[in-house]
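Researcher: Structure prediction, please.
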Amino acid sequence: MGIEEDHRRFQDIVRGRIKRHFKKYVTQGEMIGKRENDFVKIPIPSIELPKFKYGPKQQGGVGQGSGDPGDSMQGQQGDGSGEAGNSPGEHVLELELSLEELADILGEQLELPRIEPRGNRKISSVSNKYSGRAPVGPNSLLNFKASYKEALKRSIAIGEYDEQDPIIVPIRKDLRFRSVKPTQMPQSNAVVIYMMDVSGSMGDEQKEIVRLESFWINTWLKRNYKGLETRFIIHDAAAKEVDENTFFRTSESGGTLISSAYKLCQEIIEADYPVSEWNIYPFHFSDGDNWSGEDTRICMTLLKEYFFPRVNMFGYGQVESKYGSGQFLKDLEKVFPDEESLIVSKIESRDKILDSIKDSLGKGR
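Model: Predicted structure follows.
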């Protein structure tokens, strides 16, 4: 029992260190690469516990004996000379945390509210089904087939069964009755649809920022929804759906038509995610360049007439790029200055990822 308590205290100390340096871990891509199922391994400097070293007996107490200031202790090098070592001076400990624990730390650090799913989708109900078996119950719930099987097994076990005269007479202890088995209905489902501009102005650093922010958005939403699906769309002048690996590693070039991604996102929602059953979170990441003002007007129409009435929120994250104009974010803020379903954020660098997540999830939609 004492060892378990010590281990829990040690885990609390380590988690405290993670909380203090949480911003550093949020911006580290290698941490995300250490995922195993629903756990993440976080590398942290190991914590060395202090130790007492006992010297030989009968040599006096502390501070006793001959010696001058600056003299070395027994077994130690005194003047600091000698060859330098080639080993690292700090050991690394990998702490395994569940995604739920990471989400809780994220929520605590950013003071994120728990999400309230929209409409009836927030209801988590318990369904009572007669799928269980019990040795007692009313005659109206008698399960003849299960009772017969129990009687047959008993008859064979005690040697009463006669193949020539296979008469089975259940007794009281053979009877089985249908019983209520509470079944937890699936909690609210949600889908996150990530869209990313992969034209030539979106470099590796911009994609890494999107990757990190997407991971933490997913982590938080999974904490709020038991059923979470993710879909990925990349676009330049044309859009296509891809898997997660392709989403973050594709190198493209060419012009940009943002409306191509929005139209494909609309098709995915209409085909697979009825708004009466799903909480829908589209996120679009871009450097703000679009091919023409006409295409931007098409995007604004799609947002106003299709997305805003149907989704929980529509997130737009603009990643800073030396090649991007950043105009699309300005257009969104001008056309929809008071739209509650639209969340826009400017992600100037990795250090701004937490601020962007706070902007996107801070209202608990």
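Model: The chain has a mean pLDDT of 77.
Researcher: Thanks, that helps.
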